[in-house]
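Intended use. Records like the one below are meant for learning the mapping from a protein sequence to its folded structure. Do not use them to infer anything beyond what is encoded.
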Amino acid sequence: MNGNESIELIGALLILIGSIISVISAIGIIRFPDAYTRAHAATKTTTLAVLITLVGAFLYFWFDEAYVSVRLLLGIIFVFITAPVSGHLILRAAYRAKVPMADSTVEDELKDVIFRKDAN
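Structure written out for the chain above:
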């Protein structure tokens, strides 16, 4: 096994791992009880899955085809920056709109902070 074949294998494994994490994320979106935990599954694990998949594709093209894809690099940067921020802002809006939490939620640490500030 030469160097290019091992890089191909690493790229394929990264793409496979990213796909598996994406399936786990989809299961979490379906199974979790409320909007907050579903959004956690959607943003955190999906971001990781997409990043791992794009890195695997980038490595494959870089070492096998001798082609550095600027589009893949921009995709990695864009997903890394925008997905967690958008998930945070959507959940913040849901919290301020008083979307109910699951019955199994033990503590709401933001209640005193956010709604006290709004009352002033």
